[in-house]
Amino acid sequence: MQKHMAIKRSRGEVAFSVFNYIFFILLCIIMVYPFWHVIMMSLSSVEATAKGGVFLWPKGFNLDTYAKVFKDPSIWNGYLTTIVVTISGAFFGTLFTATTAYPLSKKDLPFSKTMLLLVLFTMLFSGGMIPGYLLMKNLGLIDNRLSLVLPGLVSAYNVIIMKSFFQSIPESLEESAKIDGATEVTIFWKIILPLSKATIATIALFTAVGYWNDYFSTVLYINTKEKWALQAVLRYMLTNTNQAMQSAGVTVAAATNVTAATIKSASVVIATVPILCVYPFVQKYFVKGVMIGGVKG
Amino acid sequence: MAVSKKAAPESFKTRCQRTWREMVKYRWLYFLLIPGILFFAIFKYVPMYGLKIAFMDYNQYDPSKSLWVGLDQFVKLFSKRSFIPVLRNTVVISLLKLIIGFPIPVILALMMNEMRSLKFKKVSQTLLYLPHFISWVILAGIIMTLLDPDNGLITQVIARLTGERVMVLTSPKWFVPMLIVTDIYKGMGWGTILYFAAISGIDPQLYEAASIDGAGKWKQALNITLPSIIPTIVVCFILNCGNILNAGFDQIFMLYSTHVYDVADIIDTYVYRMGIENADYSFSTAAGMFKSVVAFILIVVVNNIAKKTGNEGLY
After folding, report:
1. Is ipTM beyond 0.95?
2. Would you state the CATH architecture of domain B78-308?
């Protein structure tokens, strides 16, 4: 009986298992293919992209589009702005998230509960786009790159995650330092932060991705094109391809090996490659991020 | 808060003194809090105070000359012919995203859980999760390439299959389905990993006991795995309900055009156009505030329902 059931079960299981693997293989192909396609488009010749049919490999392989796109200084300016904004934003954002979360993790600190509620409330309610814009205007930060960094520094969500993590650190680790007369700042810096490396790395990475992908702050606050973030430059190239081609030195009438389609795909690739290169190495932190924050703060 | 519960009732004065002593004792913790307090005050609470211009007629050249107009902006908002369709689009798009997109990660996580090969699981997790980190700007670029009316790959495939050249990005009929599909593409990996993490937290003894009782894999998935991740599902559902008026600003902002305003203009894009492009600050703030208030009410109500029905809520 037992044996019979085991065989019967495993037969159904095998069928399902085969289906399952095929399903996920197909799904993985669907996930990756759009990226692959756009890379192949950017490497193909004008005739091939116009006719269509670029599917697995580039047709009429050439690098002319990249040569043109790289001549456009706005891509380089965009990269510079985005790198500076991402690094400073992730550094200060994570630092201030930790300095906010640590005191709030102390239950006997007077008013910590009230402050925590005030932080939580910003998750449920916000002033929205226009008051945020008017605030930046009143602070005189319009067309200043600080406006790309400041508004996104600390998120309530990250503070809550960090606070829960700090609360899981045993009190006893801090006690001995306290007896030695260390202030909370020293304890925070010398004991708490080193113990929280993994959580800090995760939050820093998520903050960094947020800054890297941000185009809307540029749309809202920055006028001068030299100060645009990379994603905003890309957005401009996608939505105003003709102007973008001109600034890359391609006149629409001229018969070059470059078209709107190849320009678009090349700029997409240029903005995506850094993420694709870093992603496999930091992916485990991202998965961890879901696990620490996902279920409940 | 600092008062221990055992102590006899103290007078207000001694309580204040006690709190003050505690605050002095913890002065360095308050010192650490300074940047955080400044940040939340300036960048979160000042804009909330800025919502007052929704009750004004904001004068952008001299804000001090702005007049209070009470609820006029809201009356204008709801009497405007353009806002009701915007509200409808917002709700329709996000409800469709919720109904179609919400179950998919749950199913994927359950299926992934049945895979034996650890390596395969890891690779598919990594690939499924990838689009979550790619901005809508980049994804929009890819979507535009695939759906290009002349030489887009998908356009060509559809043309070959149906003999019809569908211009998805400018077609009021196809634009919203495209939004839903691409939204699922971007988000399903995140959800899958979230549920998968919840599944890995399930006590293996439950499965052992079930298989001794003769429950097959299918029954185990239905009677052990699924019920165990219900709390996670509920929390996600609450979050999604609070987001019902967020139909996906970045996605739509990158992809829409005047051709599809009728079906794709949502509150956020409307606020952007009215506020930033037309500089009608008070009116657009009123539209934005309507959205924030409704979202707040929704999340509180759904959270209470979740708690009343015996589930853990969000807070």
Report:
1. no
2. Orthogonal Bundle (1.10)
